[in-house]
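This part of the workshop introduces the protein records we will be handling. An example says more than a description, so a record of this kind follows:
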Amino acid sequence: MILNMKLKWAIKLIAVALITVTFSCQPDEIGNGNGLTATDMDASFSVTEVSGVNNTYMLESNNSYITSSWNLGIGAGFFTGGNSEEVFYPDAGTYTVQHKVSGIGGAESTVSQIIEVETSDPLFGNIVRGGKFDTADDIAEWTVLNISASGAEWTFADGKATIQGGGWNQKAIYQAIEVVEGQTYNIDMLASSTSGIINTWFEVFASATQPVDGNDYSAGGILASINYWSGCGDTPFSGLLSEVGCGDTVYPGEPGKFIAEATGTIYLVIKCGGENLLDGISIDNVEMRASN
């Protein structure tokens, strides 16, 4: 009995000693010789045009990492992906693609490449001109529609178009766009407000009716909106209009949908006004694309 008890205590002491030795060999910080930091991660990748498909590229990397994420240079940030990604850029432009990999111990490595897209896709390209408001040429594509004499103003700065004001006044911006009869298009944009709005409407129209200064515009019906009375916009917001907006549209549940009745010129009109826009509503990345 006494021998068994001594044996048990001896086994316990040996176990404690082994645990002590094991932990005493580990450095206090990751990367100080414990083998937890990867040193051979390779985030490089190749870019290959996909044959027979407009503006489509294959991004391919290797497997020397635990996780892989991609940033396609379209303003959406990084997303978790695989070793290869097929990407489509409908619009002409310069895109900085980044591939970030993570290894053991949280080590990271990032590699960037630039893709130059020379021409927009003839079907799915954005047919709005100057929708990013980045340059003087972008801004020149838009015309201000002076519905109210004063009290609401559109300004263009920092890559955005912003409307501010109140007193139940309103103004719009618009541009002429060529469409094809029977084609369905989707209109969307980034919309944001740092303060929210009070008793305010923000509405999008597309119609063959040309805007005229001094006259309100509602031709073709509201395609998408932010409407205080319908329950949105009263608190700060930022996101796609199709997601942060609300209110009646021509096609309920399908904000921004437009079907061209004839081939020719239509006018994309973005109108806003109301009692108090507080810090205003800003828009960016205005798009109108043909859908499938």
